[in-house]
Specification:
Blueprint lengths: L18 E3 L5 E3 L4 H6 L3 H12 L4 H8 L3 H13 L3 E5 L13 E5 L1 H5 L7 H14 L1 H25 L5 H11 L4 E4 L7 E6 L5 H6 L2 H14 L3 E5 L8 E6 L1 H5 L13
Antiparallel strand pairs: 1-2, 3-4, 5-6, 6-8, 7-8
Helix pairs in contact: 2-4, 3-4, 6-7, 7-8, 7-10
């Protein structure tokens, strides 16, 4: 959902500085979120944006992507970690693992996302709250569907022109052009469908209170792709990525209409 809260202005000099805790429990001030965006196109900002747009990534992956030495990348990662812009996670391993420490993945934090422009603010939340109180929850859902209709109208010819097996990728490319940092992937060796991931949500804080925004978007994805879709995770609910499973059309067509009414599951 783009531009729901486009009336928002970026935080001014009086904005609160986020806090973080050290391992000893002491509270310290993190660098203002705008520091990351101000440094772009500096290396630190480029690293933060790559993590935002591509999801959790290793230092080696960033090094290869940027053409920098691992030591240089780790120095910037250490600064971003210290400022609370990113967090480190241990990569999952499948099967036996060789010697050495497991790889570390670096993921964007809420503070990191806030460093980049968002299309939501308190006014958008207040407006939806007023709408729900005066016209009922159904009005919020109607508003969400109306907002997503323009996005669906623009994406439809792009998706329709793609080959059936490439439509999820086409949708991901269209979403990325609108700032959602989307990607499409298929689990190797399976034909159950694709996963559509959105690494950035401009209205995550608003959608956390009004899931109708996510629901309308999911329904639109199903209509655009002509198959059943299911939202598995959302940034609005605290997940690192908005993930939508897209069922293979061949599986949907093999089912009876009563089992898959409309071909879409929100």
């Amino acid at each position: 959902m783009k531009n729901v809260g486009s009336v928002a202005a970026t935080a001014g000099a009086g904005a609160a500085v986020p806090e973080r805790r050290t391992q000893g429990g002491a509270v310290v001030s993190a660098a203002p979120a705008s520091d990351v965006t101000r440094s772009e196109p500096g290396t630190r900002g480029r690293i933060a944006r790559l993590i935002l747009e591509n999801g959790p990534v290793t230092a080696a992956g960033l090094s290869a992507r940027l053409g920098l030495t691992p030591a240089a990348v780790r120095r910037h990662l250490d600064n971003l970690l210290a400022d609370g812009m990113i967090e480190a996670r241990t990569a999952r391993t499948y099967g036996s693992r060789g010697r050495g420490r497991p790889a570390r993945l670096f993921a964007i934090t809420d503070a990191g996302r806030s460093a980049f422009e968002h299309a939501y603010d308190d006014l958008a939340t207040s407006a939806l709250r007023f709408l729900a109180e005066t016209a009922g929850p159904g009005a919020v859902a109607a508003f969400a569907r109306r907002q997503i209709a323009e996005l669906e109208r623009r994406y439809r010819p792009v998706v329709a022109e793609a080959a059936p097996q490439d439509r999820v990728k086409a949708l991901a490319a269209a979403l990325s052009a609108d700032g959602y940092a989307a990607s499409a992937s298929r689990r190797p060796g399976t034909d159950s469908g694709d996963q559509l991931c959105q690494h950035h949500c401009p209205v995550a804080h608003v959608a956390a209170q009004y899931p109708q925004l996510c629901e309308a978007e999911t329904e639109a994805f199903g209509r655009l792709l002509g198959t059943a879709v299911q939202r598995l995770a959302t940034i609005a609910h605290g997940d690192g990525v908005c993930t939508t499973h897209v069922t293979s059309p061949s599986l949907v067509h093999s089912r009876t209409p009563t089992n898959e009414a409309g071909g879409i599951s929100a």
